[in-house]
Design a protein that fits this description.
single chain; alpha/beta; Rossmann fold; 8-stranded mixed beta sheet; binds S-adenosylmethionine
Length: about 270
């Protein structure tokens, strides 16, 4: 892991379920044109799946152009083939319903909070432990704002001189899984609560791996609440318009960056 000077801005990714959906309109239109005019260029027949694939690729490209978050590019690309597959599988509606419910319980915060579930990797866990080991102070309290399945929370709980690690998670299924995995850990406390409704001023370190959407609001909350030294570690998403105190670049496949901010402000 290496530290660099702060970047100009962290707001590199847009969000946008509605824009991702809208991306299908030009994609469908272009696919229909392709269907209509391709015979003039290439002798038919062609496999029908090629048109579904074309629609997916075009919808992914339009999602990119509309500056949707990267996960929408993949969702848009996979949507048509998965739809065809699902229709072809002839799965009983009850299983479709169960799948929908499971996805809803996992991606509970994807729409309202614009924060889906994706997990910090083991390189990030090690980096969090290294950062915490360097921080001064005894019996520190740390928090994971949106603790998912609890991996990052456990890594922090097992860092030197951490007395308590609190995970806030509102998505029911990730909360339940983390509860089953870590409920007996002596230094971990899991709260099925939104971190927006909690006072965060008692934490020495707060870790967040969210999305660009909540960063300005999160920063405003921490600035308002921080009374004594607190470190915010944000995975991948910088606070727009605020210079981080440090940026740590991790040596992993996705080129993770950790943005470090010290509070309270002088
Ligand atoms: C990108 S995941 C990160 C999971 C975990 N921190 C990690 O690094 O592996 C973000 C998590 O935040 C949760 N989340 C989003 N908004 C939240 C809120 N207001 N309160 C509690 N959890 C929230 C989501 O449900 C999701 O599980």
């Amino acid at each position: 892991m290496s530290e660099t000077s702060p970047p100009p801005s962290g707001q590199r990714w847009g969000g946008g379920a509605v824009r991702a959906l809208l991306a299908h309109l030009p994609a469908v239109l272009l696919t229909l044109l392709l269907w209509r005019f391709l015979p003039m260029l290439v002798e038919p027949p062609y496999p029908v799946w090629a048109f579904w694939a074309a629609e997916g690729v075009l919808a992914a490209l339009f999602a990119m152009l509309l500056r949707c978050a990267p996960w929408w590019w993949g969702i848009n690309a996979l949507f048509p083939p998965l739809l065809v597959l699902a229709l072809g599988l002839n799965v009983a509606p009850v299983w479709m319903g169960a799948l929908f419910l499971a996805l809803l319980l996992v991606f509970w915060n994807a729409h309202g909070e614009r924060v889906p579930l994706y997990l910090s990797n083991s390189t990030t866990h090690a980096a969090l432990q290294a950062i915490l080991a360097r921080e001064a102070g005894e019996a520190r309290r740390v928090a994971d704002l949106g603790s998912g399945l609890g991996g990052a929370l456990r890594a922090m709980a097992e860092a030197p001189r951490v007395a308590e690690a609190v995970g806030f998670e509102t998505a029911p299924l990730p909360w339940l899984i983390s509860r089953l995995r870590l409920g007996r850990h002596p230094r971990i406390r899991l709260r099925r609560a939104s971190f927006w409704s909690e006072r965060l001023s008692d934490f020495d370190v707060v870790y967040a791996f969210l999305s660009p959407a909540p960063m300005p609001r999160l920063w405003a909350k921490l600035v308002r609440e921080a009374r004594r030294p607190m470190l915010l570690i944000s995975n991948s998403f910088a606070v727009p318009g605020v210079e981080p105190d440090a940026v740590i670049e991790l040596d992993d496949a996705r080129g993770t960056e950790l943005f470090l901010y010290r509070l309270p402000l002088p």
